[in-house]
Design brief:
By secondary structure, the protein is α/β, with parallel strands linked by helices. It is built from five helices and ten strands, in the order βββαβαβαβββββαα. The chain has a five-stranded mixed beta sheet with strand order 3-2-1-4-5, sandwiched between helices. A hairpin with a 2-residue loop joins strand 7 and strand 8.
Length: 222
């Protein structure tokens, strides 16, 4: 059994997959506040509904970021704690790759399509990730910070930062859920790519995240 979490895309979301790849649970609750108090009761609800003991979970998947700092922190801390408590490994999935995966799950794109996922990072920047669709699989190229109004050459731009950059590509604003996290994590887990709690690390891209939060608070106070 694999359980996937997301608390980054303004939601609390949980999905559950069986060891043979069947999605048996998928639920999302919109909202970016109170996630710490919501996500664990959601897990209890999912396991109770499915009649599964937490000890039966063999892997924990999570959105590792980049994205909202508090969401990443909650996601990572919950999965690390559950991993240690239940001796089950973790699989971290890029929020940018989840965006690209949500896109190809919804829209048929030709082979070798270039996809750029873009999430508003505030402070006049976006988190961006480049991917290529190769024979139905997403191949990750790079993840980076990009200034607002930068020019991006791609075939499709996806995410809430799409209108913050310049591009002639088609633009779509989608939000992945734990369903997409689980779908991406499953083959990694099956291939033996899951890691220990100590190695289940978040990705912020912006290295001075703590300073950034303090600066944001100072600006709001002024």
């Amino acid at each position: 059994m694999l359980v996937a979490f997301d608390t980054i895309f303004d939601q609390c979301a949980i999905a559950v997959m069986t060891a043979d790849g069947q999605m048996i649970y998928d639920k999302s609750v919109a909202g970016s506040r109170g996630q710490t108090e919501i996500i664990l009761p959601m897990l209890d609800e999912a396991l109770n509904e499915l009649g599964i003991d937490v000890k039966e979970v063999l892997a924990w998947a999570f959105n590792r970021g980049p994205g909202a700092f508090s969401g990443i922190r909650i996601n990572t801390a919950v999965v690390q704690a559950l991993s240690v408590a239940n001796d089950a490994p973790c699989v971290g999935i890029s929020s940018l790759k989840a965006l690209a995966y949500a896109l190809i799950s919804k829209k048929n794109l030709p082979n070798n399509s270039r996809i750029t996922s873009v999430i508003d990072a505030r402070q006049n920047q976006v988190y961006a990730g480049d991917f290529v669709l190769a024979d139905g699989a997403l191949v990750a190229k790079d993840e980076y910070l990009l200034d607002y109004d930068s020019v991006v050459v791609s075939d499709v731009i996806v995410g809430n930062g799409a209108d913050l950059i310049q591009s002639t590509a088609q633009k779509l604003n989608l939000e992945p859920t734990a369903y997409h996290i689980a779908q991406l994590a499953y083959p990694i887990w099956q291939a033996g790519g899951a890691v220990s709690a100590e190695q289940a690390l978040p990705v912020y891209l912006r290295h001075n995240a703590w300073k950034t939060l303090a600066e944001q608070g100072k600006k709001q106070a002024n």
